[in-house]
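chain below, 314 aa
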Amino acid sequence: MTHSRIAGTGSYLPTKILSNKDLETMVDTTDEWIFTRTGIRERHIAAPDELTSDLATAAAKNAIESAGINVDEIDLIIVATTTPDKIFPSVATMVQKKIGASNCPAFDIQAVCSGFVYGISIASNFIKAGASKCVLVIGADTFSRITDYTDRSNCILWGDGAGAIILQASQEQGVISTHIHADGNFETMLHVPRKDNGTDTVMMEGSAVFRMAVNTLDQIVDETLAANNMQKSDIDWLVPHQANVRILQATAKKLDMSMDKVVVTVDKHGNTSAASIPLALDTAVRDGRIKRGEVLLMEAFGGGFTWGSALVRY
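prediction:
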């Protein structure tokens, strides 16, 4: 059987930083209040002329360089995003143009914060089926564009960024398994409703979403371990969606895992939606924490609701 492995990682963060101190001048909040409840200190914000496809392209170029491949080896591009440049064409086709990839399939997927996990699942199955050999998978979002900066309850959460991987066909098993789910019955607990004035912004029932996320991620941990006949101790690193440090701590507790083995970037990045897992992965790969051969559990929960996991030997 043909497997898939991560050949390279890359990421990109916009230059502008919006700190908690900055937010104190915008809404009724404090640095202490934000950090205590979320673990966030700062987040990056895209420049007015910086598109989601620009962030995605920069991350893609870094991943391509990391993998040591030529652009023309890429035979599929998948971009997970909730904040495309425009209604159509897709961000993936814009990235294809900007990196100079030649005539390969390219499409976007929309699963909000779970989008990157969905992307890995799709890409690995394309490779298993023999339809692709080298897939560029990107998570990229500019959530600042759909954030109401007068809403103190959730404007503190969001940041912009992009992360990417090159997933290649391999005789060695890199992607061990993926597990993806959705339940549209909870649509209005976390969504962007259409407004007549065109200012479409995130609305969230924070406490309810937090409870759902913790419970659902507990279940996906059990599902992933059971599917692979593995023990908690077999996981070397947790690379989770970076929504709230308390959710990360709850998942680590479920795994009987020290927070030293959890990749935490939420303090510097905020919640970058589909970008958060590949951003965290690239950060830990480049600083030397994550090493080849180690087993990673990536898991996410997002609007929809959607949730999922990817178990990967790096």
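The mean pLDDT is 97. Residues 210 and 291 are 31 Å apart (CA to CA).
thats it, cya
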